[in-house]
Amino acid sequence: MNLKEMLSKKIRIGLKSIKYDYIGDICEESEINYYDEARAGDITPDYLEVLVTRKVFFEPEDIFNLEVTYYVLHFFDDSIDSLDIPDRSDIDREINEDIEYYTESEQAKVSLLISEITTAFSLNPLITIPVFTEKSE
Around 83, how many Cα atoms within 13 Å sit in the side-chain half-sphere? Predict the structure, then answer.
């Protein structure tokens, strides 16, 4: 059975964590980078937790590193037997094959948070693109 077919329409979304590491060094030539990761968190008989993290950093390492993580709880349909739930690697693969469905496209809120955090520390607001951005190789 397809994972999406096992889920009800009930979801819950919330902020999981914010991690801000001040580095302090300011390089004349540094590049701001960021990317998003999505993966399964807790998997219970009641719900699947999807964790979405945006990582912001500089190359070379400069000023700060920042990670913002939110969660999306996708509740399983009541008729699903917990023995039918796929294993974690299959779930992670399916999440990454249909990012928009499983992440609920909350990157706009994450972008807003990052801009507010950077502004609060006397920096210009850092505005990241409000869509899921995969890590470039």
Answer: 0
Beta-bridge partner residues of 18 = 68
- What pLDDT, on the 0 to 100 scale, is given for residue 61? 85
Query: What phi and psi, each to the nearest 5 degrees, are found at residue 133?
Result: -120, 115
- Beta-carbon contacts of 42 under 8 Å, excluding residues fewer than 6 positions away, are 48, 49
The residues pairing with 39 across neighbouring beta strands, listed in sequence order, are 51
Alpha-carbon distance of 81 to 111, in angstroms, equals 37
Residue with tokens 């819950």: 12
Higher pLDDT, 83 or 62: 62
- How many Cα atoms are found within 13 Å in the side-chain-facing hemisphere of 26? 1
> Distance between CA 54 and CA 35 in Å, rounded?
6
pLDDT over 80 at 134, yes or no? yes
pTM: 0.90
Greatest CA span in the chain, whole angstroms? Answer: 59
Q: Beta strands of the chain (E only): which ranges?
A: 7-22, 31-43, 47-59, 64-76
